[in-house]
UniProtKB/TrEMBL annotation:
InterPro entries: Gln_synt_N, Gln_synt_N_sf, Gln_synth/guanido_kin_cat_dom, Gln_synth_cat_dom, Gln_synth_gly_rich_site, Gln_synth_I, Gln_synth_N_conserv_site. Its main location: cytoplasm. It is found in: Cytoplasm. It comes from the Bacteria. This is Glutamine synthetase. The gene is glnA. The keyword Ligase applies.
Amino acid sequence: MTSRDILELMKQHDVQMVDFRIVDVPGRQHHVTVPAAEIDEEVLERGVAFDGSSVPGFRGIEESDMVMRPVLETAFLDPFTEVPTLAVSCNVYEPSGNRYERDPRYIAEKAEEYLKSTGIATNAYFGPELEFFIFDDVRFDSTQSGAFYAVDSEEAVWNSGVGDKNLGYHVKNKSGYFPVAPTDTQQDIRTEMVLELMKAGIRVERHHHEVATAGQAEINFRFGTLTRTADTVMTYKYIVRNVARRHGKTATFMPKPIFGDNGSGMHVHQSLFNGDEPLFYREGGYANLSETALHYIAGILYHAPAILAFSNPSTNSYKRLVPGYEAPVNLVFSRGNRSAAVRVPVAVVSPKTARIEFRTPDCTANPYLAFAAMLMAGLDGIRRKLDPTELGFGPINKNIYELSAEEKAQIKSVPGSLGEVLDALEADHEFLLEGGVFTKDFIRNWIDFKRNNELAPLHLRPHPYEFSLYFDL
């Protein structure tokens, strides 16, 4: 789209406000709204100023002036504002006109440029599957004298015996994988989410109830190139949350908001193309994968502990990554096997649909950073011709959770905490620096931010369950 196209779109829909949006380092959106009367081609080209010191992970107050410039092809009509409003994602610039090195969107774009510069491929395609919960109520607090959280859902199994009148059909633990109504109470709200996503220009493929009780859901959209798919993830989360709120409900992408049932992941399908030529397919190879695809898998699994610092970047991520809840904690690859960290889909596969699926990530990831890190790891595997079998990553075609203790001992597992993956990133990040995609400053800033703002505050606070364990000792 051009600036004139945007102005014409605004005229057609009587747009009164334009919402400029950026994404901070942890992965939250921020916005500045400008009256349509102030928008012309010059504003759309030069952008608007903002205070970078107030954006988490950006910069200090002594050098805070920054500029956001709209990426015109991301524009969509916001369905949640009272007056017609056009929302548009932006790139972040220095006042000098240079791109800002800590802008997550810039890192994603640099990863795509690096891919082209290697001569390996022209495009990397990503297709994430986002899972989330739709709750009817959520309450939490953490003070000097106490801490608690509580979530609730009308379809949760723990509500099967409460209330003056109970109609049953509650979703049992691990029994929520697409039952029909009345067990599935959220068909209409998911459909409304899909319709709003489609109006925003997102091609949706399907939606369904997910495995867990208490309103776990999944809506799948069509794959795309790296940066544009990350843009789509941000729009997706915005629309899902606001449709839920429209219905007096709340949506969360936390990996493990409830105890004793499956958590929510973000399985990421990936493939490389050179022009129109798919690079991951070879008929007769393992799961019809090419050598290029196997090298890519090896890079993902070899660097997985460091990747997880971006793809599973919350303390809550590691409440999900435990055995027994379909969580892919095992660093192996396998054909069609959902208990492996890397699964190779084998149903209805053609050369152009051949792909690999990294199942470990979750939705607390900043998608620009996570996708870029995955691509850089895969390319490192290709560049170094890493062999996943020689490295001990499989393939394993059995249910890993049912292997003997001796067999399990041969399988590498993902790290068990945010602290461990930050340590892994600190020790293994050279592959991310190739082509200047990530910078040492960004990685140092990311590690320090996570340790200082998430790990340290959590470690200082008593946990409610500690009272059950230790109060009477």
